[in-house]
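This follows on from our talk about sequence and fold. Go ahead and set the record down below:
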Amino acid sequence: MTQAASTLDTLPRGTDLIAALLGRFGLELACVDDGNPIPGSYWGDPEAGLVGDRLYAKRETPLHSILHEACHWICMDPIRRERVHTDVGGDDAEENAVCYLQVLLADAIPGLGRERLFAEMDAWGYSFRLGSTKGWFEQDAEDARLWLSGHGLIDPLGRPTWRVRQSPRPPYT
């Protein structure tokens, strides 16, 4: 039996907690009323949506979706971040970095954490060469760590810097 996905409703102070986390990056959480579609949602309800500097979600939006879209926004260069509407674009390297960063940010959310996020990502259908999100994160994600480090999004110890990407490519290329 799989565990139900964590949502804004499953967290103590759910909306406030997520809004504060996203706000550290300059991203605003906009809550959508039941019965209304989620603006900027690529996959449709209940998945999170991005339009400019707003991340849209409902009470039943899975936290892995909120974190994933937020991490896309964090990992975008400034031009894409300013223009984003629904389709986040990016390449495979950025996608891997997004997945890695969402795991790191899950640890900053009481009631979620990386272990629960691993299970939820696997249940949703994220796929990695090693067969699980946890296996990929622990054994096969060096490219994602290097990408995040190169853009100043994680520190040398692998912790989030709470900054957004500032340049189209790492300063060392």
Remarks:
- The beta strands are 28-31, 49-51, 54-57.
- Helices lie at 14-23, 63-75, 78-83, 92-106, 113-124, 133-139, 142-150.
